[in-house]
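Protocol check, entry for the methods section draft. Step 1: assemble the input record (protein sequence plus ligand SMILES). Step 2: submit for complex structure prediction. Step 3: store the structure tokens unaltered in the notebook. Ligand used here: pyridoxal-5'-phosphate. Step 1 record:
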Amino acid sequence: MQFAKRMERFGTGIFSVMADLKKKEIAAGKKVVDLSVGTPNIPPAKHIIDALTQSAADPKNYIYALNDTQELQQAVQLWYRRRYGVEIDPETEMTSLLGSQDGLSHIALTVADRGDLVLVPDPGYPIFADGPALAGAELYYMPQKQENDGIIDLAAIPEEVARRAKFMVVSYPNNPVTSLAPDSFYRELVAFAKKYGIIVLHDNAYSELVFDGATCGSFLQYEGAKDVGVEFNSLSKTYGLAGARIGFALGNRDVIAMLKSLKSNLDYGMFLPVQKAAVAALTGPQDCVASTRLAYQNRRDVLVEGLNRIGWKIEKPKATMFVWAKIPEPYTSSETFTLDLLKRAGVLVTPGSAFGPSGEGYVRIALVQEEAEMLWSVKSIDESGILKGA
Ligand SMILES: Cc1ncc(COP(=O)(O)O)c(C=O)c1O
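Step 3, stored output:
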């Protein structure tokens, strides 16, 4: 059989090597703590599960949903108003997604033709580059340098690149670098997009996971943002609903109309009980969001303080559910370090190279296990001697 060349992008590579090694270690009776994939393990609040299960018990709810219910549209509208002070027209300025991944991957098909240029952050969450690549677009990586606090330097994008670009993906708070962007960045972003006629896609999956009492907003609250782009949002991390696949795209009505048109040909909408769960999450008590945030913050503290104590110097992330850590000396390859860490300490992380060319030299550690597992990981890394170059 012969398969499409585009699938080579998802070739076997480091992830299957890691998965095989993990299996082998477990089969040999060794413990492995998996901090590689950003799968949240904090369950949804009871009122959300109740809404889902009650709706799932009704036989009428198994039809194709086709559209977002009015109830869901209003819930999203209210949430955006209450949380960010942003007004959304639910009919024309939003659509639900089967997880924000659905939108982030498919939107490229509505904007980019083969050979078009798309600007993506580097390092960046893989679908930012995979979506346009599947559409046949050419990628231009926008570095998120440490000396610039992980914020893209728009002024450094060459004029001819900006002129050619069809759309650009931006995301703060950010996975994997964890940076938060200042207001000035978003104002510059809108001006840049207007000047060059570039569509902006802002991924805001982590706006509710900002720590130490800080907060952040929405791209759409900046003047002119809706003229140039859309925001993606997700209930996966905020409400522990990753498996239910609930996301939204909101903002520019032409971009939303195109995405809705494509999606109406690909899927038939979000399962009605899942829409009910989303409504319960968005309109119900919000203390679950605060407790989820605190749980991630506590895990962060246990892990980062522990790693610093044993000699791995890492800064605490201000947001998200990830730690972005420079690999210890004498390592120079994030893949080699990741495999050694798994073999020697039983801790699985993601090599920075998986997030783009600038990710080399780093690993991403996901805060997806309980504090006890974080402590175990710190102890095991210490005992392995891997930080001492031993
Ligand atoms: C930055 C970012 N965007 C989007 C997603 C996908 O989220 P969803 O579950 O809504 O598809 C993730 C998941 O880890 C993510 O880290």
